[in-house]
Write a structure and sequence with these properties.
The protein is built from 5 helices and 6 strands. By secondary structure, it is an alpha+beta fold. It has one domain: Cytidine Deaminase, domain 2 (3-Layer(aba) Sandwich).
Length: 164
């Protein structure tokens, strides 16, 4: 038997003013997207903004549905829109921000498991890491790759085992 550890490093910022201009712009876009979220049941509005290799920003918001789990998360919404509308461009970074019914969320939020898997697939498809910016009012985390948040991810190599 072997015991192993998995750890990762990330950058933590106390406020948006500590960030480079492109990161600030992406966070503002994610916060703007959260305002457009459709969240009548939870009141938890999430916005995501994706920066593409052509510098374009694509936004997405969560969309809830009375028939849970028929809704879609902001991250998957933004990534789907980027693939659909800019099929030749690679995702460079994604910022995620949330707000409650009437105010922004102080702490950062992290993508759910399904969104982590979708980000992992996008990294694999594009052949490079995607910076992940988790933005709260009081703290911003910058993570270099989804493999830091999803270290033992399921990927296309797992499927090759089952395929002839």
């Amino acid at each position: 038997m072997k015991t192993r550890n998995i750890s990762f490093s990330y950058t933590e910022h106390d406020n948006i003013e500590e960030l480079a201009g492109e990161d600030k712009e992406l966070i503002v876009a994610a916060k703007d997207a959260s305002v457009n979220a459709y969240a009548p049941y939870s009141g938890f509005r999430v916005g995501a903004a994706v920066r593409l290799s052509n510098r374009e920003i694509v936004k997405g918001a969560n969309v809830e549905n009375a028939a849970y789990p028929s809704g879609i998360c902001a991250e998957r919404n933004a990534l789907g829109n980027s693939v659909t509308n800019f099929p030749g461009e690679k995702v460079i970074a994604i910022a995620i921000a949330a707000s409650g019914k009437d105010e922004s969320i102080d702490d950062h939020i992290s993508p759910c498991g399904m969104c982590r898997q979708v980000i992992a697939e996008e990294e694999s498809r594009n052949g490079h890491e995607i910076r992940i910016i988790l933005a709260g009012s009081n703290k911003i985390l910058i993570i270099n790759s989804i493999s830091d948040l999803l270290p033992l991810q399921f990927n296309k190599d797992n499927l090759r085992i089952a395929l002839p």
